[in-house]
């Protein structure tokens, strides 16, 4: 399977798009967020401010293991972020998330645009039903003008005898912030103790991001701590927006495996922090950025 980029342009009049085959979200999802709320993204002499966040939503379940999308909606709303990267997102996946489209529902509730990038897309449980999908997503107050679902090396959790192979689920969107195109990527790296697959994933990530120009923002659960050797190549081009606090597990966290990272040349970090919350088994990372046009 090729690792070449696959892209699908998002029509400017649609508010929710999937990255797999340019599938559109249900009409209700598109009609419910007909305008973007104000996000405080005005220009300044130093640059364009943008608040971003990354959050592993644990398929809608909190630290207590209970599925509660109302609780997670409230947590996401409290972040007041312009762009949010989500991991462990179910879309009609199974009973644990009540077969619901979590990305679409969160977008409607928060009045944001959404782009979903499935890692897995399985045949429906019943003929004519929606596909069972699991992956990552981007929510944005700014219109999504392009979306792609990139393949990176993965070790499948759906195959009883997996081998590392290219698979989708490295999501990218381009949003326009006061006319400035900004590349936002969302990812979820391999969780296994052996870092070999993460080493390959970081190499894939750097190769894909190198093809783009302008401000770049990487949001994700990297399943490794900042000083992990496999992450070291990432810091050649990107700055870690260090919030100075751990993110996992959400209750009494002991390590930081969730990241906001930005391109060194076009993006500055004003501040970053980790809100306290048990709405997921991870805590979010939030960062206030300054985007430079040149």
Automatic annotation (TrEMBL):
Swiss-Prot/TrEMBL keywords: Signal
InterPro entries in the record: Endo/exonu/phosph_ase_sf, Endo/exonuclease/phosphatase, GPI-anchor_lipid_remodeler
Keyword set includes Nucleotide-binding: no
One Gene Ontology term, aspect cellular component: membrane
Any GO MF annotation of the entry: catalytic activity
Domain Endonuclease/exonuclease/phosphatase: 53-282
Signal sequence coordinates: 1-30
SUPFAM superfamilies: DNase I-like
A Gene Ontology BP annotation from the UniProt entry: GPI anchor biosynthetic process
Name used for this protein in its record: Endonuclease/exonuclease/phosphatase domain-containing protein
Organism encoding this protein: Streptomyces filamentosus NRRL 15998
